[in-house]
Amino acid sequence: MERPTIEIDANGKTYHDLNTALQTSLAAGAQRISVHNVNGQRYIGTNLSGAVTLELHGTPGNDLGAFMNGPSIIVHGNGQDGVGNTMNDGEIVIHGHTGDALGLAARGGMILVRDGAGYRAGIHMKEYEGKGPLVVVGGGAQDFLGEYMAGGTLIVLGLGRRGYGWSRARFVGTGMHGGAIYLRGKIESHQLGKEVGVSALDERDRQVLQTAVERYAEHFQSDAAEILDADFIKLFPLYLRPYGKLYAY
Q1: Which stretches of 60-143 are DSSP H helices?
Q2: Which of 71, 114, 116, 160 is the most exposed place for a label (fewest CB within 10 A)?
Q3: Residue from 93, 99, 65 nearest 79 by CA
Q4: For residue 205, what are the contacts with CB-CB under 8 A and spacing of at least 6?
Q5: pLDDT class for 163, splitting at 50, 70, 90?
Q6: Three-state DSSP state, 211
């Protein structure tokens, strides 16, 4: 039998007090926790494991879901910097936008952002033996998107943007040496880092996109077919060791 939702009021709580309350609820067997009046508390969901759902109402602070291994976090608001930092498994759904370094060094799991992301989204994402993270950004993204990516899948849909393509981001894919970036629309060559190439999609790419966009649409009540009815491009790494000549070994 499913246990009742645990309600926590974060008003006036420090990040330490709030995270202690979460850990206490989980130790008591909570399966679903709803936290209200979240206002900048950091490290929510850090190092959590297991089949638990956290619903956060407000704006959580930096490093939401860091090192997380399995839970689901749903944010009814915006995220700040470092969402999903070194995340291993689980999912984070943001009903708003996020700050910088979204998915920093993530190793697995899924992050869905309804709107846009700040600088360096997807930086240093990685994968191992077929396991890697999926990050979908519904709006645009800023400079250094996919910087130093070593694996995983990063998708930017550019929904709701007009004029200059999907984004004005520069240095996209700088230092990228693994994984794939999919962009809805076009990107100018001067926006790209020197380490990435551009290609059309093959059938496998289309399957990856369809699955990811359907998950996005399911969470944010969007039309997946309408989103997919557009031109996409794929960015891929040109080199496995783009800075190999700079090292002494």
Answers
A1: none
A2: 160
A3: 99
A4: 180, 182, 232, 234
A5: very low
A6: helix
Domain CATH code at residue 232: 2.160.20.60
CA end-to-end distance (rounded Å), the chain: 58
Domains in the chain, number: 1
How many other C-beta atoms are found inside a 10 Å radius of the C-beta of residue 108?
Answer: 22
| Residue 32: Cβ within 10 Å count | 16
Whole-angstrom distance, CA of residue 163 vs CA of residue 243: 35
**Which two structure tokens, joined as six digits, stand for 185?**
């629309």
141 lies in some domain? yes
Domain-embedded: residue 69: no
Helix then strand count (H, E) for the chain reads 3, 11
> Does residue 162 carry a pLDDT above 80?
no
Q: Print the domain residue range for 119.
A: 97-246
Bridge partners of 33? 6, 54
Q: What's the whole-model pTM score?
A: 0.94
> Tokens 């969007």 appear where?
222
CA–CA dist 249, 247 (Å, integer) = 6
Q: Which of 175, 176, 172 is nearest to 190 (CA)?
A: 172
β-bridge partners, 137: 113, 156
What ranges make up the beta strands (E) of the chain? 6-9, 32-39, 53-59, 69-76, 89-94, 110-113, 134-137, 150-156, 178-184, 196-199, 232-237
Report if residue 224 sits inside a domain: yes
Angle at 165 between CA 120 and CA 59, to 5 degrees: 45
175, 147 contact by CB (below 8 A): yes
